[in-house]
Amino acid sequence: MTIAGTRPEIIKLVPVVHALHREDGVDVRVCHSGQHVDLGREILNAAGIVPEEMLERPDAADVADLLAGLVVKVGAAIDRQRPDAVVVQGDTATSLAGALAAFHRQIPVAHVEAGLRSGDLSRPWPEEGYRKLIATIARRHFAPTGAARDALLAEGVAADTIHMVGNTVVDALHWADGRIDADPTLGRAAEPLSEAAEGRALVLATIHRRETGPDALKAIAAGLLAMVEREDVHLVLPLHPRPQSQVLRELLGGQARISLSSAVDYFAFVRLMRAARLIVSDSGGIQEEATAMGRPVLVLRETTERPEAVMAGTAKIVGHDADALFAAARLALAQPMPGPNDVFGDGHAGRRIAQRLARDLINPNR
Ligand SMILES: CC(=O)N[C@@H]1[C@@H](OP(=O)(O)OP(=O)(O)OC[C@H]2O[C@@H](n3ccc(=O)[nH]c3=O)[C@H](O)[C@@H]2O)O[C@H](CO)[C@@H](O)[C@@H]1O
């Protein structure tokens, strides 16, 4: 059983579910934890995935309560489905809850996107702590890159339980491209936004992390406003349904060359990334996607667990500083875009993961 609850987890686990379906002797189940109910629905529909377990998000005052509630609810789903193995992705409350619930039932845990480390327990919080905790109880670690594998080895994870397979986000991009080519109605929400930017360089931004607080938002908005003073730039900012979006609407609304929208579906976002000249984001997955596509990305964080993107020359850490953001944007817009880079994988991570799971955890006697 694969367990997902947020938009990025769903996107990154679709290739694993599809690949597991292609493994004979494997019966794959999907549990949606309900952590983010609405985001990601369209990708499940397009992927033809109907979760066997569609859980209600637990009532929670804070992320600790959310984790506790998810452990209980996901544990009940595991008891109903009785899987031979559980697959979790990345570093969310759903990922850790799934791993803990399975561990307490002595069901082996496979961790997709294992080994990402910023080296700072407070940033990103709580994700750095969550992914380290999962690493201590998982039986198989699917590391996207050599740096991730090395981080796991440094923490004493047994080498024969680590498999360097690439990040499934690249598989998802290839899948999305194919689906959009076959059905141009997918991701139509991108059209009015890319049309608004017609004739100007489209800068695509997303800001959703909890640690991007009010002062940081003001500084980022100041940097973005300075960037769109020039006539040849247009900013598109799909807003994640988080409280800080209201602040961003107040700071950035009503500007001629800024289009604010609600979060767009995955296919629309892929189309916007392809149309973008520059991406500005505090996201993790978008650093990987920008690198795979060859789009420069300015990272609105103080640290990253994607050093490969920085070394590839696609990502630049600008923190929450208006001047750093403005200067980096001006430089990036003056330089040619970096070429596509496969440092995060070749688009076949899902197949490698499914084959290894089938052999090692699901039908060990195969
Ligand atoms: C600490 C950290 O970095 N943790 C990350 C966090 O994920 P994230 O930071 O990548 O989260 P987001 O930025 O929300 O999602 C991004 C995805 O959403 C798509 N997108 C975006 C805007 C939109 O309007 N419509 C969309 O469809 C976009 O193409 C992309 O695929 O948790 C994941 C799960 O554990 C981890 O894997 C991952 O390390």
TrEMBL record:
Keywords: Isomerase
E.C. number(s) listed in UniProt: 5.1.3.14
Ranges of residues in domain UDP-N-acetylglucosamine 2-epimerase: 19-357
Record keyword Isomerase present: yes
Stored InterPro entries: UDP_GlcNAc_Epimerase_2_dom, WecB-like
Family that this chain belongs to: Belongs to the UDP-N-acetylglucosamine 2-epimerase family.
Annotated protein name in UniProt: UDP-N-acetylglucosamine 2-epimerase (non-hydrolyzing)
Native source species: Croceicoccus ponticola
Lineage: Bacteria, Pseudomonadati, Pseudomonadota, Alphaproteobacteria, Sphingomonadales
